[in-house]
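Forwarding these from the shared drive since the link keeps breaking.
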Amino acid sequence: MKKTNIIDISMDLNAKTIVWTADPPPNLKPILRKPKDECNFTWLDFGSHAGTHIDAPYYLYSKKWTTDKIPFARLMGACQVLDLTDVSNTITVQALKRHAITRRIILLKTKNSYDPMKKYNPQHVDLSPEGADYLVKKGVLTLGYDYQSFEREGKNILHRIFLSRSITLIDNLRLKHAREKEYFLICLPIKVTGIDGAPARAILLEQCRL
C-alpha cells in the first residue's frame, strides 16, 4: 500500500519576506479587523517576483508567454530534484554532470535552501552560464531554484538563456526537506493576466510505501 507525502516547497510571503534589494518589501495592510469590524480584510501590495514565484518569458521578451499563458504541463508533472548542496559557490557543468538528468522539470537544491533568509545574501549559490547551456541541451523545460535568482547582481544573462527559449523558471523554492529523487510537482501561479511573473504555491507529491 502507498500513501502520498506532501512537501510544501513554498516560501512564506509576508512583510518580512526578503525580496530583491531594489524592490520594496511586501505590505500586507489590515483594512478591516474583527471584532471592531464585521470581518477580517487585508490589502496585499507586493511585486510580481516576491516570494516563491514564476518567471514568464514575457519578463524579458514582450511577444512571449505571460504567466497566465504558460502551459500547465510546465507547472504540473513528474520532476527531479538534484541535490547540489555540496556546491559552495557556483554550480558548474561538472557539478551538474554528477547527476543523471531524467526529467524535463528540474529543481536545483543548494545551500540556499538552508539560508534563514533574514537578509539578502549577494553571495548566494548561483549557476554558471555554461551550466545553464548544459541544462538547455539536456532538454529541461522548467527549472526551479532556491533563491531570488539563478544569478547575482541583478544580471539577466542566465534569464536570457532560458527565457529566450521559453523555458519556465521558478524562483525562491524552499527545498530543505526534499531529497534527490523524483516527485510530482504542482506549482501554479496566481492567474493575473498579461504580466511577467506571479507568486505561486509549490508542492511536491511523493509516493511512499506504508
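-- next protein --
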Amino acid sequence: MRVALGVEYDGTHFSGWQVQPNQRTVQGCLEKALTTVANHKVRVVAAGRTDSGVHALSQVVHFDSPNERAERNWILGLNTNLPKDINVVWARPVDDDFSARFSAVKRSYRYLLLNRTSRSAVHDNRMWWYFKPLDEQLMQAAANHLVGHHDFSAFRAKDCQSQNTVKTMESITITRRDDCIAIDVVAQSFLHHMVRNIVGVLVAIGEGKEPVDWAKQVLESKDRSQAGVTSPPQGLYFVDVQYPEQYSLPTVSAFPVLW
C-alpha cells in the first residue's frame, strides 16, 4: 500500500532535506524511523526539498509498504522513533497513482523578517534579523512585478539543476505586524533558492537601496548576477502543499506562530 505523511520539522540542526553522506538530514532521519516501524527498508518521496536551516510546517511525503498499519499506529510509531525536531502530524493511505512531488498543484512558502534595531534572543533561528528600516509597501509594489508566468532564471541558484526556469507565480503578499514582516509566496513549483533570492531583492528595495522597478529589471535580465543577496535560510518556512481533492488529504493550520 502507499501511504502519505504530513511532516513538520525545525531545520536548524539539519543539513537540509535530502539524504547526504555523513550528514544529519530530515529524509535520513525519517527513513530510519520508517524502516523501524515498517520492518523493512523504506524510501520516501517528498513534495519539495528544503535547504539546511529551512523549516517545514506541512511537508508531504509518500512511501510504499506491504505492511498495513492504522493511521494512528503510523503516527505514534514514527514519532516515538523520530528526534524532537521532526514530527509526523498525519498519515493517510493513498492511491498508487499519488505522488507527493508530482501530484502537487500548489506550494506555499513564508519568509519571516524581524525588522528592528536589536536582535532577538528567541527568534535567532526562526527569522532573518534586519536592523535597517524596511518599507513593506515598496516591497509589495516590487513583488507585484514578479507575479505571473515568467522566466525566473535571475532568481535561481547557480547549482540549480531544473531544466525549466519558467514558473507561474500565483501571489506574493507582504504583511507587517509591528516589527515582524512576513513574505508569503505561492506557486506550483519553485527553482532552487528562488524564494530566498526573491526576498533578497525585495529587502534591498524595502531599504531604499534600489527602486521598485529594479525587481522587474532583474527578472527581465534572466541573469542571477544582476540580483541581490540570497537571504539566509532560517527565515524560510515550507508552509503548505495542496493536492487535488480526490486524494482527501488533511489540512494543517497555515501558520499558528506569530499570526
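The helical segments are 26-38, 71-81, 136-143, 194-207, 214-221. The chain has two domains: 2-103, 106-238.

- D.
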